[in-house]
Amino acid sequence: MPAGLSMKELTIRTTRRFPPPAAKAWSLICNSRMDGSSTLLFKLGVPQPLRCEIPEGQGGVGCERECVSDQGVVHQRILIWEPEKCLSFRMERTDLSFQRYVREIVERFDLVATYAGVEVTRTTRVWTKGRWQPLKQLALFVSLKQVHQYVFQNWLKTAKLGATLPESTSPTPT
User: Fold this and answer.
1) pLDDT at site 119
2) pLDDT, position 6
3) Contact status, residue 53 vs residue 27, Cβ threshold 8 Å
4) Into which CATH architecture does domain 10-161 fall?
5) Domain ranges of the chain
6) Who's near 150: CB < 8 A, 6+ residues apart?
7) For 135, phi and psi rounded to 5 degrees?
8) Residue 87: Cβ-neighbour burial (10 angstroms; 0-12, 13-18, 19+)
9) Which run of H or of E encompasses 148?
10) What is the pTM of this model?
11) Residue 160 burial (CB < 10 Å; 0-12/13-18/19+)?
12) How distant, in Å, are the alpha carbons of 21, 89, 92, 97 from that of 106?
């Protein structure tokens, strides 16, 4: 069984280093679009992320974050908002097929400035429901790890190209 797999809670953690400044990585966490490249798991049915954004334009605790995939939308509520340091949110609702067996998802992005850039750690905690939880958690672990890697690869491409977001979508603390 993969590390982090248990009957009660599944934890998936991925860390990547981004070029400075932290504001660029923070902007990507709050509002980004994926390039559409595909992997085998996406071709086999894992929902492929298309974009994540804060629909209100400005974030803060209690605001909504929305992630759209090729199969549906996940609506999240922001729990922690510390610009350029930490963003955490909980899934409120989704129309994705996994809603039948996922009780709760809480995600967290931690940003740490280093001499070589900004380390971003994404931690996803998932609680499943119903029968066959170990099998569900194994499938979720593989799928969500793929999503972590895909999103980080897209963000790294964007950060290295020096792309920036329009001023109107740049998040500010509230």
Assistant:
1) 96
2) 44
3) no
4) 2-Layer Sandwich (3.30)
5) 10-161
6) 34, 37, 39, 42, 48, 49
7) -70, -40
8) buried
9) helix 133-161
10) 0.85
11) exposed
12) 26, 6, 10, 18
